[in-house]
Amino acid sequence: MKLLVINGPNLNMLGIREPDIYGKESYAALERYLHETADKLGVELEIFKSNHEGELVDKIQWAYGRMDGIVINPAAYTHTSVAILDALKAVALPAVEVHLSQVDQREPFRQISYAGMACQTCFAGLGFAGYGKAMEYLADHIPSADLPQ
Ligand code: DQA
């Protein structure tokens, strides 16, 4: 099983950026956590990070026919991007939304998630562990019949 993890804008600033909200650990630490989790689950992992909406759309399209599922933290684009929603709908891959912070207890503008409308579930407020839960969820929910032989 091949999973693509996509991270949106400003997540490269983890550790520096608002540590009270996003934690003190760096983006490199998140990548290490993702690789360790993938190894434990026995899944192949591709990680993509961009500050640019169009690059996120391009990567979602790239996943079509190559990946079995997508874990996505679109960061601020969660709350604005119909383009990312449409890309997720276009490829129709099983997708799970992740947020490090508890977005539903933050500002009103964070209460809408466009990307979430194309995702099977969401893990928010669990820090790095939310990504682990999302990867586990996909590993458990993608039927093996749908995987390339
Ligand atoms: C975030 C929450 C978003 O509202 C915010 O814009 C981010 C990070 C999170 O992981 O908690 O950049 O997606």
How is this structure best summarized?
The protein has 149 residues and is an alpha/beta fold.
Can you describe what's shown?
A five-stranded parallel sheet has the order 2-1-3-4-5, sandwiched between helices. The longest helix has 15 residues, at 27-41. The chain contains five helices and five strands. Strand 3, helix 4 (82-91) and strand 4 form a beta-alpha-beta unit. With 149 residues, the protein is α/β, with parallel strands linked by helices. The radius of gyration is 14 Å and the shape is globular. Helices cover 36% and strands 17% of the residues. 33% of the residues are buried. The mean pLDDT is 96. It binds 1,3,4-trihydroxy-5-OXO-cyclohexanecarboxylic acid (DQA). 1,3,4-trihydroxy-5-OXO-cyclohexanecarboxylic acid binds at residues 10, 73, 75-76, 78, 99-101, 103, 110.
Structural category: alpha/beta
Mean pLDDT equals: 96
Order of helices and strands: EHHEHEHEEH
**Any ligands, ions or cofactors bound here, and which?**
1,3,4-trihydroxy-5-OXO-cyclohexanecarboxylic acid
Radius of gyration (CA) equals: 14 Å
| Unreliable spans | none
- Strand residues, percent: 15-25%
Largest sheet: 5 strands, parallel
Number of helices: 5
Shape: globular
Total beta-strand segments: 5
In helices, the fraction of residues equals: 25-40%
The largest sheet has its strands arranged as 2-1-3-4-5
Q: How far from one another are the termini?
A: 10 Å
